[in-house]
Amino acid sequence: MKTFTEVKPYANEPFTNFALEENKKAMQAAIAKVKSELGRHYPLTIGGEKIETEAKITSINPGNVDEVIGYVSKADQKLAEQAMQAALTTFETWKKVPARERAEYLFKAAHLMRERKHEFSATMILESGKNYVEADVDTAEAIDFLEFYGREMIRLSNTNETQPLTKIPGEDNKITYIPLGVGVVIPPWNFPLAICVGMTTAAVVSGNTVLLKPASTTPVIAHKFFALMEEVGLPAGVINFIPGSGAEVGDYLTTHPKTRFISFTGSKEVGLRINKLAADTVPGQIWIKRVIAEMGGKDGIVVDETADLEAAAAAIVASAFGFQGQKCSAGSRAVIVESVYDQVAERVVELTKKLKWGLQEHDFAAGPVIDKTSYDRILDYIEVGKQEGTLLVGGDKAEGNGYYIQPTVFGDVGGKARIMQEEIFGPVLALAKAKDWQEAIAMYNDTEFGLTGSYFSTDEDRIAEALETVHCGNLYINRKCTGALVGVHPFGGFNMSGTDSKAGGYDYLLLFTQAKLTSRKI
Fold first, then answer.
1. Which of 134, 196, 305, 328 is catalytic?
2. 321 and 352 in contact (C-beta within 8 Å)?
3. What is the spatial distance between Cα 472 and Cα 470, in angstroms, rounded to a whole number?
4. Ranges of residues in the chain whose predicted pLDDT is under 70
5. What 8-state DSSP symbol labels residue 249?
6. Where is the Aldehyde dehydrogenase domain (predicted)?
């Protein structure tokens, strides 16, 4: 008889309080443990088979570029095809595993991740340049996804009991949410554990098998998650770990006739390319491929003259510079009503100047950006900003043996400026002035993106108008525009921000399933 974990009501994983000395020491011990394992080699895994390849992805610490986190074997098209065949074979048995049993693997993984929380966080601190809080939040979110999606699959499997179809005489009618097939999961580097875990396990718990192609800058933390799923006994071939080039492996699998869905989080440009490639049917393909895409944003905070200006300034700085602005939800622009613009801008500059940067294993507020490509792109945007606005603080490289950039704020930026319109994905904030609150909302909406936004006001009529007219997937009132919680703030955006997937919400698993109606005459 199979025994199952007791399923208690869902609750978010608590964050660690690093103001307590024992928690700081626990994280430092975890960092020391991870550092003792640096430079290891990690195989790719196909159908349970560990494969070492000559070609490697070298993962480095962006805050200390002389430090190698690990060497990860790299798949090519031949290995990608091998992984596809393994996933297809495994799907035939995995899809028949009851939903409650599939969910159990997620619950077990959540339990073990919770026990080793700091070790997972420490890996991200070294591999992605997160500070203690940002890494801890990432790990907590990963645990939340495991717990939430496990419960969600159980809920969907009980639909006929909890939300039965309308009965008519002489028929027994049921709806079943069945899996799609083999999916390609392409997570980002900026939430290299949480989003990787969420995207992958949502697909798996729904009964699909997965080809996991992690981000090339953060493959070691992705492997740590994959190894955890192996440890809890997930059958071989349900997740196939195949790091590799997007141009080679990613495109090959996106266009493969047996790929049923592609789940992607990343840039607008790559997301649109995936969507275009997936839209073309190829010989042997008997379905329309499903694309689940979260593609970033140009998020912002609107402040009117009735707002709590101190709270607004603090939220602007936190939203702009948390994890060096490398969040799709980052508030990289603020539109402020002109009567309070100078006051808010002055306070934003004061708070930004207090941010100290350095090696994240020492828990500085600000750290490096992810790699040389990002570093060069962000510095180029800073030069553009110097032409488009007034440099208020920052504006240059920062010291350190890594990809450090000063937190940078530009003032008096026009609404059509490039640094107001284009996603920079770095520690660069643009401040713009509006004549009144209506113009401020219009300036916020003047973008091709629509992911997150915040509106600061104490006027209830204005807030009501903002709730209706600010066009984004996640709108927050009088709080920062980052920090969505699983089960609390379902996450996804409009327009070029993607397919509004609402990760961490009650609709998400529907994207990885298809509803089958069965009607039996009785």
1. 328
2. yes
3. 6
4. 1
5. I
6. 55-516
Direct distance between the N- and C-terminal alpha carbons of the chain, in angstroms, rounded to an integer: 33
Whole-Å CA distances, 502 to 107, 157, 478, 491: 21, 20, 22, 4
Per-residue model confidence as pLDDT tens digits over 223-272: 999 999 999 999 999 999 999 999 899 999 999 999 999 999 999 999 99
Instruction: Look at residue 1 in the predicted model and tell me its pLDDT.
Output: 43
CB 168 within 8 A of CB 519: no
What the block records as the tokens of 517 is 């109606």
Residue with tokens 């297809």: 88
Helix residue spans in 289-398 (DSSP H): 309-321, 338-353, 372-388
Residue 242 token pair: 């195949």
Rounded CA separation 237/85 (Å): 9
Q: Which of 127, 294, 305, 388 is catalytic?
A: 294
Give yes or no for a contact between 130 and 194, defined as CB atoms under 8 angstroms apart: no
Residue 446 is encoded by which pair of tokens?
A: 């003047």
Is the sign of the CA dihedral 384, 386, 388, 391 positive or negative?
Answer: positive
What mean pLDDT is reported for the chain? 97
Active site residue 399: no
Per residue in 396-448, pLDDT (tens digit) is 999 999 999 999 999 999 999 999 999 999 999 999 999 999 999 999 999 99
Closest residue by Cα to residue 299 from 282, 319, 315, 321: 319
Whether 481 is catalytic is: no
